């Protein structure tokens, strides 16, 4: 209960305080390339329930291909590159937190294509909690696109190496999470984003 109340309070305050920035980002996206401001994508949430995540659009409208970003992905717009580097494209997910589909801290929600590769032993544990804006695995793999760019087969690298490591951390988080640990992860995330900016 305390975690949910904390999520609601922080998400509501964040959306209120960041509303000018959200408007500027939305306008910049519209000026940079044709297409919608937001990108909605199916993700798998708590207990395997699928929801549509809110993100600022960072790719050219109509872009197709793997749901992975590899290195300097040509699908990414000029503004999108900056938004991804600074993680500003994730800010609309405060809406998902308010709606109850996500939490501030929790395993990052994955697309159904890769949830299908979850080992049964870890699937239930990883999906036992609400997915989050950030978590220890996100911090560990903050340069995931660069790691995938160095692989001969980026998708195989993701499925066989990165995804299992993320799942293990997700399962550990689900079993040990507390409000105090969530606040610590949020603080570490803020520091990491400030360094990247």
Structure overview:
This protein has 197 residues and is mainly alpha-helical. The chain has one domain (2-196). Helix content is 56%, strand content 10%. It contains nine helices and four strands. A two-stranded antiparallel ribbon has the order 1-2. Strands 3-4 form a two-stranded parallel ribbon. Strand 1 and strand 2 (50-56) form a beta hairpin. Helix 1 packs antiparallel against helix 3 (93-99). The chain is globular.
Write the layout of secondary structure elements.
Elements: H1 2-32, E1 38-44, E2 50-56, H2 78-86, H3 93-99, E3 103-105, H4 112-115, H5 120-126, E4 132-134, H6 136-140, H7 144-149, H8 154-176, H9 179-196
Parallel strand pairs: 3-4
Antiparallel strand pairs: 1-2
**Can you tell me the number of structural domains?**
1
List low-pLDDT spans. Answer: none
Note the total helix count.
9
* Cα gyration radius (Å): 16 Å
Assign the structural class, choosing from mainly alpha, mainly beta, alpha/beta, alpha+beta, or little secondary structure: mainly alpha
Order of helices and strands: HEEHHEHHEHHHH
Strand segment count: 4
The fraction of residues assigned to DSSP E strands is 5-15%
Mean pLDDT: 92
Given the C-alpha coordinates, what overall shape results?
A: globular
- Biggest sheet strand line-up: 1-2
Helix content range of the residues, please? 55-70%
Largest sheet: 2 strands, antiparallel
Q: What is the distance, rounded to the nearest whole angstrom, between the alpha carbons of the first and last residues?
A: 34 Å
